[in-house]
C-alpha cells in the first residue's frame, strides 16, 4: 500500500499514481498533514511518499516526524520528493534522515522513473522491512520460551538473553549485554571439554551435552545445553545460539557430548533427557540457602501449606495437573506448564485485547464498561446519591388501578407478550412513566402479588416509588430502559426451556431484579464515578459501584415504608432466599464479569446439553433435568437471562435498535463532555459528539459483547426471531459504516 502526500495534483503526483496502478499497489492520496496522518493510522501503508518541494503548503519534515512517533510506522518506508536544482551544489541528506525519511527522490515526473522507483523500493527496503516485521514474531517466541536462550557474536560477546535465561542464571539482561563470556563450564576435564565443544562449533556443527555453569550468586547448576553456530554474511559463522535447560537432581543424564551436522538436525540426539521441565518448583532448592534457622522455618511453612485440608477447587485442579506432569512425555508436560500459567492468572475469563491494531471503539467500550476507572487523586468530586433525597411512597400521587388504565395505554400494551412490542409507543402514551403500567400488567400475568401475599395497591405503590427514582433526565438509563429490560425478562421467562429450569421464586426474583436493576442510575459509568471520587465509589470501594447501589437502594426504598413494602408478608427464610437471588441478578449486570458469566454458561450448560443431544439422549429427560436443575446451573441461567435482557437492544426490531443506539450514544457523549469540563480522565475518547461514528461503536459493541452471548442464549432458549433482528441490525450498521456515515440513519 502506498500513501501519496501532495498538497496539489501535478505531474509528479500523477506519475506516482500511474506507477502504483501499473505495479498493482493500492494507493491513497492525502492533501494535508492531518488527513495524511489519519489515513496512515487507518491503512498502515508500506510506502509513504511526501512532497518536500513546496514548503508553503506544509512542513514535510514535521509531518514525517509525526508519522514516526506512531508505533505503526516502525516498518514503513518514507520517501521525500525534493526539487531538482541542476545549478546548485548537492545538499546533504542528513536533515532528511534525522527527520525520519528512508531516502529521497529527486523530482522526475517520468512515469517509468516513478515506476522504477517503486519497484526498487518493493524489492529493496520494503522487502527488508517485511523481514524485520517477522523478527518481532520470532523475538516474541524467544521471550516466551521456557528454555534459557543466549545469543553471542562470533567473538563470544553476549548480544541477547531471554527472560528464562535471566531466571535460571540470576542475572538481569543489562548486566550481560555486550559482555564477553568469562564463565566457562566447570568440568573434571576442563581443557579437553572446551576443546571438544570448540572443535564442533567452529566448523559449523551443532554441539549438545551436559555441563555445569555458575549462577550470579555462585551456585553451580547442571544444564543440558545445545550450542548452534549460525552462518551469516560471507558464509562465515556470525553468531552462536545456546539453548539450555536445568537438569533435575533425581534424573541425571550421562555426561556425554556429541557433534551434529548442521544440515541434519533431525538425527537422533542421544544426550536428550526426558524430564527437563522448568517450572516445577523444588521446595528443597528454595530453602537451601540462608541460615539453618530460616531454612528450617521455610521448610516448616511449606509443609503446612501442602498439608492444608481446606482446598479451593482451583488449587485441586493445579495439584492434579502438577501430579500429571511427573509421568507425562515432554510435549504434554510443556503444554501442562502453559495451562498452569493461565490458571494462575487472576482474570481467567476476560479476553486480552491486543495493544497494537485494536479497534479504538472496542478498546474504549471495554475500558469504559469493564474497568473501574483510572485511579487518580483529584480535587474534583462528583457528588451522587448519598445526599440526594429519594422519592418515597408518601410523596407520590395516588397510583391508578390496573382496571382503570386509559385506553391509549391499554392499546400500547396489547402485544406486550410479543418480542416486537414497542416500548417507545408505551413511553409516549404514559408520558415517560411506562414502568408502572407495564409492571402492573406483567406482574399480574405472572401472579407476583399472589406469590408475595401482597395487595395490588402495595405493588402499585412500589412500582411508583421505583420508577420515581429513575432519572428521567438520562437519555438511556431511565425508567423506559427498566421497562424494556422487564419486558425482555418476562419474554425469556415464557420460553419453554427456561420454564423447565426455574422455580416460581426464581421468576419473581427475575422480574423484581429487572425492575430495579438500574434504579437511581446517574447516567455515568462506574469508571467515571471512580475517577471523579464520588461518594458512591468511596462507599463501595470502587467495586461494582452502581450495581451495588441499585440493589441496596431498591431494598431501602421497599422496606422503609409499609405502603410499598411488597415483602412485608413473606416468611423470613423465603424472603432471605428471594433477596439473595435479586441481589445476585442485579450484580450480574456489571460488565467486568461479562465474560466470566458467559463462559461459565457455555461450559456448564450449553456444552453438556449439546453432548447429550449428540449422544442421542435428547429425549432423556432425567439427564437434561440434571443439567438444568442443579443449583449452580440455575444461578448461571438466571444471570445469563438478566444480562441478555439488559443489553438486548441490538436484537430488537430495527427502529427500536436505532433509537436505543442514539440514546446510549448521547449519554456517553454527555459523559465525555463532563469529563473534559472537570479535567477528569476521558475513559471513552471515541464518544466525542463531534467525531464519533455511531455505526462503528454499535458494530464494536455487538462484535465484542453481543454475538457470543446471544449465540449461547439462543442455543439454550431457542430465539430465532432475536437472532434474525440481530443479523439485520448488523447489516444495517455495516451499510452505514461502509458509506462512511457516522450518524444513526442515512440522509433522505
TrEMBL record:
<dbReference type="GO" id="GO:0070374">
    <property type="term" value="P:positive regulation of ERK1 and ERK2 cascade"/>
</dbReference>
<feature type="compositionally biased region" description="Low complexity">
    <location>
        <begin position="284"/>
        <end position="294"/>
    </location>
</feature>
<dbReference type="GO" id="GO:0071364">
    <property type="term" value="P:cellular response to epidermal growth factor stimulus"/>
</dbReference>
<keyword id="KW-0479">Metal-binding</keyword>
<feature type="compositionally biased region" description="Basic and acidic residues">
    <location>
        <begin position="270"/>
        <end position="281"/>
    </location>
</feature>
<dbReference type="Pfam" id="PF00233">
    <property type="entry name" value="PDEase_I"/>
</dbReference>
<dbReference type="Pfam" id="PF23198">
    <property type="entry name" value="PDE8A_N"/>
</dbReference>
<feature type="binding site">
    <location>
        <position position="518"/>
    </location>
    <ligand>
        <name>AMP</name>
    </ligand>
</feature>
<dbReference type="InterPro" id="IPR013767">
    <property type="entry name" value="PAS_fold"/>
</dbReference>
<dbReference type="GO" id="GO:0004115">
    <property type="term" value="F:3',5'-cyclic-AMP phosphodiesterase activity"/>
</dbReference>
<feature type="binding site">
    <location>
        <position position="518"/>
    </location>
    <ligand>
        <name>Zn(2+) 1</name>
    </ligand>
</feature>
<dbReference type="InterPro" id="IPR002073">
    <property type="entry name" value="PDEase_catalytic_dom"/>
</dbReference>
<dbReference type="Pfam" id="PF00989">
    <property type="entry name" value="PAS"/>
</dbReference>
<feature type="binding site">
    <location>
        <position position="481"/>
    </location>
    <ligand>
        <name>Zn(2+) 1</name>
    </ligand>
</feature>
<dbReference type="InterPro" id="IPR003607">
    <property type="entry name" value="HD/PDEase_dom"/>
</dbReference>
<feature type="domain" description="PAS">
    <location>
        <begin position="134"/>
        <end position="204"/>
    </location>
</feature>
<dbReference type="GO" id="GO:0006355">
    <property type="term" value="P:regulation of DNA-templated transcription"/>
</dbReference>
<feature type="binding site">
    <location>
        <position position="518"/>
    </location>
    <ligand>
        <name>Zn(2+) 2</name>
    </ligand>
</feature>
<feature type="region of interest" description="Disordered">
    <location>
        <begin position="264"/>
        <end position="305"/>
    </location>
</feature>
<feature type="active site" description="Proton donor">
    <location>
        <position position="477"/>
    </location>
</feature>
<comment type="pathway">
    <text>Purine metabolism; 3',5'-cyclic AMP degradation; AMP from 3',5'-cyclic AMP: step 1/1.</text>
</comment>
<feature type="binding site">
    <location>
        <position position="517"/>
    </location>
    <ligand>
        <name>Zn(2+) 1</name>
    </ligand>
</feature>
<keyword id="KW-0114">cAMP</keyword>
<dbReference type="InterPro" id="IPR023088">
    <property type="entry name" value="PDEase"/>
</dbReference>
<dbReference type="InterPro" id="IPR057304">
    <property type="entry name" value="PDE8-like_REC_N"/>
</dbReference>
<feature type="binding site">
    <location>
        <position position="646"/>
    </location>
    <ligand>
        <name>AMP</name>
    </ligand>
</feature>
<comment type="function">
    <text>Hydrolyzes the second messenger cAMP, which is a key regulator of many important physiological processes. May be involved in maintaining basal levels of the cyclic nucleotide and/or in the cAMP regulation of germ cell development. Binding to RAF1 reduces RAF1 'Ser-259' inhibitory-phosphorylation and stimulates RAF1-dependent EGF-activated ERK-signaling. Protects against cell death induced by hydrogen peroxide and staurosporine.</text>
</comment>
<feature type="binding site">
    <location>
        <begin position="477"/>
        <end position="481"/>
    </location>
    <ligand>
        <name>AMP</name>
    </ligand>
</feature>
<comment type="similarity">
    <text>Belongs to the cyclic nucleotide phosphodiesterase family. PDE8 subfamily.</text>
</comment>
<comment type="subunit">
    <text>Interacts with RAF1. The interaction promotes RAF1 activity.</text>
</comment>
<keyword id="KW-0378">Hydrolase</keyword>
<dbReference type="GO" id="GO:0046872">
    <property type="term" value="F:metal ion binding"/>
</dbReference>
<feature type="domain" description="PDEase">
    <location>
        <begin position="401"/>
        <end position="740"/>
    </location>
</feature>
<dbReference type="GO" id="GO:0006198">
    <property type="term" value="P:cAMP catabolic process"/>
</dbReference>
<protein>
    <recommendedName>
        <fullName>Phosphodiesterase</fullName>
        <ecNumber>3.1.4.-</ecNumber>
    </recommendedName>
</protein>
<dbReference type="InterPro" id="IPR036971">
    <property type="entry name" value="PDEase_catalytic_dom_sf"/>
</dbReference>
<dbReference type="InterPro" id="IPR000014">
    <property type="entry name" value="PAS"/>
</dbReference>
<feature type="binding site">
    <location>
        <position position="698"/>
    </location>
    <ligand>
        <name>AMP</name>
    </ligand>
</feature>
<dbReference type="InterPro" id="IPR035965">
    <property type="entry name" value="PAS-like_dom_sf"/>
</dbReference>
<dbReference type="InterPro" id="IPR023174">
    <property type="entry name" value="PDEase_CS"/>
</dbReference>
<keyword id="KW-0597">Phosphoprotein</keyword>
<feature type="binding site">
    <location>
        <position position="646"/>
    </location>
    <ligand>
        <name>Zn(2+) 1</name>
    </ligand>
</feature>
Amino acid at each position: 500500500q502506498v500513501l501519496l502526500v501532495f498538497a496539489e495534483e501535478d505531474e509528479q503526483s500523477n506519475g506516482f499514481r500511474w506507477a502504483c496502478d501499473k505495479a498493482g499497489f493500492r494507493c491513497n492520496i492525502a492533501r494535508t498533514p492531518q488527513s495524511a496522518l489519519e489515513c496512515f493510522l487507518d491503512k498502515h501503508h508500506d510506502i509513504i511518499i511526501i512532497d518536500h518541494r513546496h514548503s508553503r503548503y506544509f512542513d514535510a519534515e514535521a509531518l514525517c516526524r509525526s508519522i514516526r512517533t506512531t508505533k505503526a510506522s516502525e516498518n514503513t518506508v518514507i520517501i521525500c520528493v525534493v526539487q531538482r536544482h541542476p545549478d546548485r551544489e548537492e545538499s546533504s541528506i542528513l536533515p532528511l534522515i534525522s527527520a525520519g525519511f528512508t531516502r529521497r527522490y529527486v523530482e522526475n515526473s517520468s512515469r517509468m522513473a516513478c515506476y522504477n522507483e517503486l519497484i526498487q523500493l518493493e524489492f529493496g527496503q520494503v522487502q527488508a522491512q517485511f523481514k524485520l516485521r517477522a523478527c518481532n514474531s520470532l523475538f516474541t517466541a524467544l521471550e516466551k520460551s521456557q528454555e534459557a536462550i543466549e545469543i553471542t557474536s562470533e567473538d563470544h560477546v553476549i548480544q541477547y538473553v531471554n527472560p528464562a535465561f535471566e531466571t535460571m542464571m540470576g542475572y538481569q539482561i543489562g548486566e550481560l549485554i555486550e559482555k564477553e563470556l568469562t564463565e566457562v563450564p566447570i568440568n573434571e576435564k576442563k581443557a579437553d571439554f572446551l576443546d571438544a565443544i570448540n572443535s564442533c562449533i567452529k566448523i559449523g556443527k551443532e554441539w549438545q551435552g551436559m555441563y555445569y555453569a555458575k549462577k550470579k550468586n555462585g551456585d553451580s547448576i547442571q544444564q543440558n545445553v545445545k550450542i548452534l553456530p549460525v552462518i551469516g554474511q560471507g558464509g562465515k559463522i556470525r553468531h552462536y545460539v545456546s539453548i539450555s535447560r536445568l537438569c533435575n537432581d533425581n534424573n541425571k543424564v550421562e555426561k556425554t557430548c556429541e557433534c551434529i551436522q548442521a544440515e541434519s538436525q533431525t538425527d537422533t540426539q542421544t544426550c536428550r533427557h526426558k524430564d527437563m521441565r522448568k517450572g516445577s518448583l523444588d521446595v528443597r532448592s528454595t530453602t537451601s540457602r540462608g541460615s539453618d534457622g530460616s531454612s528450617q522455618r521455610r521448610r516448616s511453612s511449606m509443609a503446612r501449606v501442602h498439608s492444608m485440608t481446606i482446598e479451593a477447587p482451583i488449587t485441586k485442579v493445579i495439584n492434579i495437573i502438577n501430579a500429571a506432569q511427573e509421568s507425562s512425555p515432554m510435549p504434554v508436560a510443556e503444554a501442562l506448564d502453559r495451562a498452569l500459567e493461565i490458571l494462575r492468572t487472576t482474570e481467567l475469563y476476560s479476553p486480552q485485547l491486543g495493544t497494537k491494531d485494536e479497534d479504538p471503539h472496542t478498546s474504549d467500550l471495554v475500558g469504559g464498561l469493564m474497568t473501574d476507572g483510572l485511579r487518580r487523586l483529584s480535587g474534583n468530586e462528583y457528588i451522587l446519591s448519598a445526599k440526594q433525597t429519594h422519592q418515597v411512597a408518601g410523596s407520590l400521587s395516588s397510583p391508578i388501578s390496573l382496571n382503570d388504565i386509559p385506553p391509549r395505554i391499554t392499546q400500547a400494551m396489547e402485544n406486550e407478550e410479543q418480542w416486537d412490542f414497542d416500548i417507545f409507543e408505551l413511553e409516549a402514551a404514559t408520558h415517560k412513566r411506562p414502568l408502572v403500567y407495564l409492571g402492573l400488567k406483567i406482574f399480574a400475568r405472572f401472579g407476583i402479588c399472589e406469590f408475595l401475599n401482597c395487595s395490588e395497591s402495595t405493588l402499585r405503590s412500589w412500582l411508583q416509588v421505583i420508577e420515581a427514582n429513575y432519572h428521567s433526565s438520562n437519555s438511556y438509563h431511565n425508567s423506559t430502559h427498566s421497562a424494556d429490560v422487564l419486558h425482555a425478562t418476562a419474554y425469556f421467562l415464557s420460553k419453554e426451556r427456561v420454564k423447565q429450569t426455574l422455580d416460581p421464586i426464581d421468576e419473581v426474583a427475575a422480574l423484581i431484579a429487572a425492575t430495579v436493576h438500574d434504579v437511581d442510575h446517574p447516567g455515568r459509568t462506574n469508571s467515571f464515578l471512580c475517577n471523579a471520587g464520588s461518594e458512591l465509589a468511596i462507599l463501595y470501594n470502587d467495586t461494582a459501584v452502581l450495581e451495588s447501589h441499585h440493589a441496596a437502594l431498591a431494598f431501602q426504598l421497599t422496606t422503609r415504608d409499609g405502603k410499598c413494602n411488597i415483602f412485608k408478608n413473606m416468611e423470613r427464610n423465603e424472603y432471605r432466599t428471594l433477596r439473595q437471588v435479586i441481589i445476585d441478578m442485579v450484580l450480574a449486570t456489571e460488565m467486568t464479569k461479562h465474560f466470566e458469566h458467559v463462559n461459565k454458561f457455555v461450559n456448564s450448560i450449553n456444552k453438556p446439553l449439546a453432548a447429550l443431544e449428540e449422544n442421542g439422549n435428547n429425549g432423556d429427560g432425567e439427564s437434561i433435568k440434571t443439567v438444568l436443575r442443579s443449583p449452580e446451573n440455575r444461578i448461571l441461567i438466571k444471570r445469563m437471562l438478566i444480562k441478555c435482557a439488559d443489553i438486548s437492544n441490538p436484537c430488537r426490531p430495527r427502529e427500536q435498535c436505532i433509537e436505543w443506539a442514539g440514546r446510549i450514544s448521547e449519554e456517553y457523549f454527555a459523559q465525555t463532555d463532563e469529563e473534559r469540563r472537570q479535567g477528569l480522565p476521558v475513559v471513552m475518547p471515541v464518544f466525542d459528539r463531534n467525531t464519533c461514528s455511531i455505526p462503528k461503536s454499535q458494530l464494536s459493541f455487538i462484535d465484542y459483547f453481543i454475538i457470543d452471548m446471544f449465540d449461547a442464549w439462543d442455543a439454550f432458549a431457542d430465539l430465532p426471531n432475536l437472532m434474525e433482528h440481530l443479523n439485520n441490525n448488523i447489516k444495517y450498521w455495516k451499510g452505514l459504516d461502509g458509506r462512511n456515515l457516522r450518524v444513526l440513519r442515512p440522509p433522505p
